[in-house]
Amino acid sequence: MPVELKGSCHCGAVRYSVLSSTPVPYQLCVCSICRKVGGIGGSINLGGHTETLKIEGKENLSVYNAVMDRDTPKERRASSERNFCKKCGSMLWLYDEQWPELVHPFASSIDSPELESPKTMVCVKMDSKPDYVRLPEGDKKVYQHYGPDSLEGWHKKNGLYKE
């Protein structure tokens, strides 16, 4: 059975809930986008079923489409939409029309339930991490780009997928 995740921004102007089959925060991204919008340590996305997303305070939402390959001839806007509170700036979830059935809440915005800690943290986008950014303590797998497992695949492989 999917888990109901309840989240909010820091100031409380936006609150949401979504059902998740992939509720364990296992993958920390330290790319420049995640560090700049999510904080120095990067961000961790969970998975949710888009059709179950319920939002209070929609009028306080804004969307950011990240700039890819900034300051190069290949500069472009990402198709993914990072939804955040326009009052306090808290990142809430990411949505991409390429996968319309999925929404990706930022683990940092989840209020309940208490999220389970993974046995091993997967750290991705090391090719974008500056030296001053420290990785979390504990068991971890580190990848220059992305690891071999999708969010769903990792949860299924580790017996954590909630059908």
From TrEMBL:
Pfam families: GFA. The keyword Phosphoprotein does not apply. This is CENP-V/GFA domain-containing protein. Residues 5-144 form the CENP-V/GFA domain. Coiled coil: none annotated. SUPFAM superfamilies: Mss4-like. Belongs to the Gfa family. The keyword Zinc applies. InterPro entries: CENP-V/GFA, Mss4-like_sf. Keywords: Lyase, Metal-binding, Zinc. PROSITE patterns: CENP_V_GFA (PS51891). GO terms for molecular function: carbon-sulfur lyase activity; metal ion binding.
